[in-house]
Automatic annotation (TrEMBL):
The protein's name in its UniProt record: 3021_t:CDS:1
Molecular functions (GO terms): ATP binding; protein kinase activity
Organism: Dentiscutata erythropus
Gene3D superfamilies associated with the record: Transferase(Phosphotransferase) domain 1
GO aspect biological process, one term: signal transduction
Highest taxon in the source lineage: Eukaryota
């Protein structure tokens, strides 16, 4: 063999009457360890701990799995791509190539062509003990090519492949289980089971509270308090190198912490919501406030807040396209929940969170549950009255996916018109009775065809409402906008036609702030231009003092359960909430 010590005169091929070819570009397994031992004197990392770590691994692991000391000048095309758990993450090309096995039968070994690698800077050389745990060499995969040192900074760096297979990742996580605990066996079991069954980005973690900083109170909802924080470790993510996805972490990032209110919210109820959160949306993990001993969810942070407050501050800035994109993201979120066999049970504007002007996601899974998990209703219902379906208010049906569709219709109405449903009246039994009778929010001018979809969502009969998949397809296939002018004329336009004809108002707010007395004139280019006067805008929309838009217990007496339900649809002459 080419790398064979001169003291070795034969190898396995010689013993089998086939002499080793001295010029062969590979090495056989029988010669490997002798060559490795002889090479120990020819290199040093400059650190005794690293030298021992590499040497021990090389003598105990197969050729393709052991780490090696790699001189830094073997790397080219070096560039920083991200930040990892231990430090900076850098991509590079390894000109020597990774170790590989040529033949399974004769076990010949060689090297590949130059390949992409990831260099991870170590903050502290004492992290080697953790590296030994996290870089296991399992399932014939190499999760660590070796270690190098940047001569310009004297920093040691791990040399990793761009990606690790899910089987190896699962095994590494298994070995990590003994290094952490939440302090509760049920929560530990949930996290471990989720990590065994999920991909790298999806699985939740146990997050040490001391890795969270800048913790600030945001709001208090029906199920508990919400805080913002900075997660110093960063969220799990992928970096792409030469088409391969590399497991890494983001820079320190903002996250939301949710703490369930009151001692009555036991670990059982905490687990119930966390399972719903994990199954229906992204959950970073779980932490525990040491000052209160209360567990908290660690979730995505929404810098724009909830939909209701966002609309109060930004409605006049939103274009129709912005609104349609927000509606699309809400529908996509609910489609994901329903596709997994779950229902949300408490959809309203306060539970829709905004990442930006076009992307929203659903939160607050306190009432979320699998569809097949039946639950008997007592005389108390939980939610926001305008968003609760009539069959639930009337105790005809438990919470259901059609009930979610009804709530979705109310949310989309609020998105389009800019004000909460039924904001001008008390949220009491009288409103509930009107909803029983079929009363719905009134339309407003310049509403896109989404109103046709809303009417389907609001159908008094839950069996007649579209499923979220049907709703989604209706939304995507909608080509025309039905425009109702002040004169009562209705015309259908495509989005492009709408933008061209009503270009003056397309990029303005649409909703209750327009004077309904509009005139159409032709400009010099023969394009119809909408001439309008905007009503005086009031930043504070009047809301009835007894209108409640936070989830709460709704108590209804039996005397109100006997009303006939006839659907009533009203088109307002002046944009107004019914």
């Amino acid at each position: 063999c080419r790398y064979l010590s001169k003291r070795i005169e034969d190898c396995s091929q010689y013993k089998n009457s086939v002499k080793c070819d001295i010029e062969a570009p590979f090495i056989c397994s029988d010669c490997l360890h002798e060559v490795i031992k002889n090479e120990f004197a020819n290199w040093s990392s400059g650190n005794l701990l690293i030298d021992k770590f590499i040497q021990k691994a090389q003598l105990s692991l197969p050729y393709i799995q052991y780490p090696e000391w790699i001189p830094f000048n073997f790397f080219t095309e070096i560039k920083c791509i991200n930040r990892g758990e231990f430090g900076a993450v850098i991509s590079a090309k390894w000109n020597q190539g990774k170790r590989m096995q040529i033949s399974d039968i004769k076990r010949y070994y060689s090297r590949s062509d130059p390949c992409a690698v990831v260099l991870k800077k170590l903050k502290d050389i004492n992290q080697l003990s953790l590296i030994k745990t996290q870089h296991q060499f399992l399932n014939n995969c190499c999760t660590l090519y070796g270690i190098t040192q940047d001569p310009s900074t004297s920093e040691y760096m791990l040399v990793d492949p761009p990606s690790v297979c899910d089987r190896c990742l699962s095994d590494v996580l298994e070995k990590e289980f003994s290094n952490w605990t939440s302090g509760n066996l049920q929560i530990d079991k949930f996290i471990k089971d989720a990590q065994r069954s999920s991909t790298y980005v999806e699985y939740p973690e146990w997050i040490h509270y001391n890795s969270l900083s800048e913790i600030k109170f945001i709001n208090r909802g029906g199920f508990g308090a919400v805080y913002s924080a900075k997660w110093d470790k960063g969220v799990k993510c992928f970096s792409e190198i030469d088409g391969d996805k590399y497991h890494t972490r983001s820079e320190p990032c903002d996250v939301a912490l949710k703490q369930l209110k009151g001692e009555k919210y036991s670990v059982h109820l905490f687990l119930k919501e966390i399972k719903a959160q994990f199954n229906c949306c992204h959950l970073y993990g779980v932490t525990k406030d040491p000052s209160t001993s209360q567990y908290m969810f660690v979730m995505r942070y929404a810098p724009q807040g909830d939909l209701r407050r966002f609309l109060q501050k930004n409605f006049y800035k939103l274009t129709l396209e912005n609104k349609l994109n927000i509606a699309q993201s809400i529908c996509a979120e609910l489609q994901n929940i329903h596709a997994k066999g779950w229902l949300h049970g408490d959809l309203h504007g306060g539970n829709i969170l905004l990442l930006n002007e076009e992307d929203a996601f659903i939160s607050d899974f306190g009432l979320c549950r699998p569809v097949n998990e039946t639950r008997m209703l007592d005389q108390k219902i939980y939610g926001v009255i305008p968003n609760v379906a009539p069959e639930i208010l009337n105790f005809q049906s438990p919470y259901s996916q059609p009930g979610d569709i009804y709530s979705l219709g109310i949310i989309l109405w609020e998105l389009i018109c800019g004000i909460p449903a039924y904001s001008n009246r008390a949220h009491d039994v009288n409103l509930i009775v009107d909803i029983f009778k079929g009363f719905r929010p009134k339309t407003c001018h310049f509403a896109p065809p989404t109103y046709d979809l809303l009417r389907k969502c609001w159908n008094q009969n839950p069996l007649e409402r579209p499923t979220i998949n049907e709703q989604w397809q209706l939304y995507l296939s909608q080509k025309k906008f039905k425009i109702l002018t002040s004169s009562g004329y209705c015309e259908e336009l495509t989005l492009e036609e709408y933008r061209a004809k009503y270009f003056q108002i397309y990029d303005c707010y649409i909703g209750p702030y327009f004077n309904p007395k509009l005139k159409l004139e032709l400009n010099n280019s023969n394009k119809a231009t909408e001439i309008y006067n905007i009503m005086e805008w009031k930043p504070d929309i009047p809301v009835h003092p007894d209108a409640v838009y936070k989830s709460c217990v709704i108590s209804i007496s039996n005397e109100y359960m006997t009303y006939n339900m006839t659907f009533r649809w009203e088109i307002s002459d002046i944009p107004y909430v019914g």
